[in-house]
Amino acid sequence: VQVAESGGGLAQPGGSLRLSCAASGFTFSSYAMRWFRQAAGKERELVAAIDSAGSMTNYADSVKGRFTISRDNAKNTVYLQMNSLKPEDTAVYYCNAIRLAWTYWGQGTQVTVSS
């Protein structure tokens, strides 16, 4: 099983980044997918979630209207489009796959928002 995030980096306040998470080794289309983030010294928090079919999404209040989660089951990939970035969005972003008792995590990708 492999879950690999990419697309992190440095962005200016008000800028955009698009994170990708490529999965393999399990039936991706059967799993809900989630993005979490963990800022330095803080607990990991759920940012966005999408169901297995891509028909339902949920967002943390702090990112509603700015972030969009989507998935392409043909490519076994989930995305997080992040717009209007703020310094408080700085964190390591993790991709998570979950179905019943099974869950898989990626290693994370650093997002830094700074001028």
Name the descriptors:
115 residues; mainly beta; 7-stranded mixed beta sheet; 4-stranded antiparallel beta sheet; 11 strands; 54% strand; globular
- Helix segment tally: 0
| Spans of at least 5 consecutive residues with low confidence | none
What is the β-strand count?
11
- List the secondary-structure elements in sequence, H or E: EEEEEEEEEEE
What is the structure about, briefly put?
The chain is an all-beta fold and 115 residues long.
Q: What's the arrangement of secondary structure elements?
A:
Layout lengths: L1 E5 L2 E3 L5 E8 L7 E7 L6 E6 L6 E3 L7 E6 L4 E6 L8 E9 L2 E4 L3 E5 L2
Structure explained in plain terms:
This protein is mainly β and 115 residues long. 0% of the residues lie in helices and 54% in strands. The protein is built from no helices and eleven strands. It has strands at residues 2-6, 9-11, 17-24, 32-38, 45-50, 57-59, 67-72, 77-82, 91-99, 102-105, 109-113. Strands 2, 4, 5, 6, 9, 10 and 11 form a seven-stranded mixed β-sheet that branches. The chain is globular and about 40 Å long. The mean pLDDT is 97.
